[in-house]
Amino acid sequence: MKYFSFLIRFVILPLFVMRLLVWRDRKNSIQPPTALQNWDEDTVLFAHVAVAVGYTTLWDNYLVANKVWSYDPDLVTGITIGYVPIEEYSFFVLQTLLTGTWAQFLAARMPIDNSPYRTTHPAFRATTTAAVGLVWALSARRLIQDRKNYLHLILTWALPPIMIQTALGGDILWRHRKLILASILPATAYLGATDSLAIESGTWTINPENITGLNAISKHLPFEELLFFFLTNVLLVFGVTLVQAKESENRLPEMLKPYYTRFKQKILDNRL
């Protein structure tokens, strides 16, 4: 199965359906509650696309350059940016749009707590961030010993921005935990299952020397691949939730608030 064929069947078509459903919701005035209407949904989604491409590019190039994973040259176009085929960059964009649109669809339907925040729960935020930081530190230490270990490459790359998210709004994320779980878990299971089909068909290959050997969902899907989809969906859904939550603005450092306010107003003016 060619990589672009995989994208069309398993990502673009479901994304098209999800975008139609969200469009229908907006047409019928079905929208998220006020607690999650801080920014225009599409603006937030495309901003996360830019972040996803920017943050993943160097990491992914490192993996391909070091043969942690590879692609069948007969199943890709041969157009690359660095070491990575153009299809992979397309996947960064499409996964972000697919999971983000699924989260938008759910946010308009699930019950959301709209009550005012009475405390910012600094102890909870600090404890959660410290726990994630401990896992990151252990993985970073192991990665120094084995710089091609896929598990520790994933954890060392994905956990720092998650620490920033929990430090800023761990309590906000906990408040919306039902929406977050409903967004992350089905998207991760779906992407993992389709990734298993791509690996089985030889579209791409994970180097067995750099993984634990544990499988998930099927015998063709390494545990590390499912973890990758889980953590990238966590990054996206956490990010979208925090940006959409009005309370997040109150957590910004005072010196940044004037710049943020001007930037937000400029975006709103351009949309008008």
Widest sheet: strand ordering: 1-4
Low-confidence stretches: none
Task: Say how many strands there are.
Answer: 6
Shape: globular
Q: Report the total helices.
A: 8
Strand content: 5-15%
**Secondary-structure class:** mainly alpha
Cα Rg:
19 Å
Kindly report the average pLDDT value.
Answer: 94
Terminal residue distance? 44 Å
> Would you list the SSEs in sequence order as H and E?
HHEEEHHHHEEEHH
Report the sheet with the most strands, covering strand number, pairing sense and barrel closure.
2 strands, antiparallel
- Helicity range: 55-70%
How would you characterize this protein structure?
The strands form 3 sheets. This protein has a two-stranded antiparallel sheet. It has a two-stranded antiparallel ribbon with strand order 2-3. It has a two-stranded antiparallel sheet with strand order 5-6. Helices cover 67% and strands 6% of the residues. The chain has 272 residues and is mainly alpha-helical.
Briefly summarize what is shown:
This protein is mainly alpha-helical and about 270 residues long. Helix content is about 65%, strand content about 5%.
